[in-house]
């Protein structure tokens, strides 16, 4: 991992990571997805490249996924148990992710991880950049949903980006968002 910043909440460790998601080790890796699970965005491409074509085929077998929902597949050759495909973006190229679809897909992701008794999850700021939603607002939504989630099994949630600019923004936003925490080592 290149850079890692952490806040410890009573029930969960929340971290920001600057690295390639395909290089992470966790119970769940989250792919930012369109509802047709074509695996065309930057995060999906990184996971598909590292996980092999069987990973892409597994995702396609779960398609389509309703907007704001998820599909869970085996992680294949990735260093995880599962990949959660979070459908925050409509498949039609003329449509973009929305605050509601990002919020729904993030909630569905956390719930799916809890249902499968996962302890660790790595998630990008889904629905942003290539999906058309503004990164800063998307970051606020993902951080808020993670903070509000009443987890039953998750104790390690990492929000990841492979962009230095996005990591800097993510760090600033999370520091403001979580400024009431005791550990503000951001």
From TrEMBL:
SMART domains: A1pp. This is Macro domain-containing protein. Residues 1-178 form the Macro domain. InterPro entries: Macro_dom, Macro_dom-like. Coiled coil: none annotated. SUPFAM superfamilies: Macro domain-like (SSF52949). It comes from the Archaea.
């Amino acid at each position: 991992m290149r850079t890692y910043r952490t806040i410890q909440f009573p029930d969960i460790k929340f971290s920001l990571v600057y690295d390639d998601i395909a290089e992470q080790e966790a119970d769940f890796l989250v792919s930012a997805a369109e509802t047709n699970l074509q695996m065309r965005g930057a995060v999906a491409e990184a996971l598909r490249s590292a996980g092999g074509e069987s990973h892409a085929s597994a995702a396609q077998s779960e398609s389509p996924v309703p907007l704001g929902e998820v599909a869970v597949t085996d992680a294949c050759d990735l260093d995880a148990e599962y990949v959660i495909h979070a459908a925050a973006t409509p498949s039609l190229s003329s449509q973009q992710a929305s605050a509601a679809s990002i919020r729904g897909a993030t909630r569905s992701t956390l719930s799916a991880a809890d249902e499968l008794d996962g302890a660790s999850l790595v998630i990008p700021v889904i629905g942003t950049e290539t999906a058309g939603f503004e990164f800063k607002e998307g970051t606020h939504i993902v951080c808020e949903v993670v903070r509000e989630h009443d987890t039953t099994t998750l104790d390690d949630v990492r929000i990841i980006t492979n962009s230095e600019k996005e990591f800097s923004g993510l760090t600033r936003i999370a520091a403001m968002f979580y400024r009431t925490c005791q550990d503000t080592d951001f």
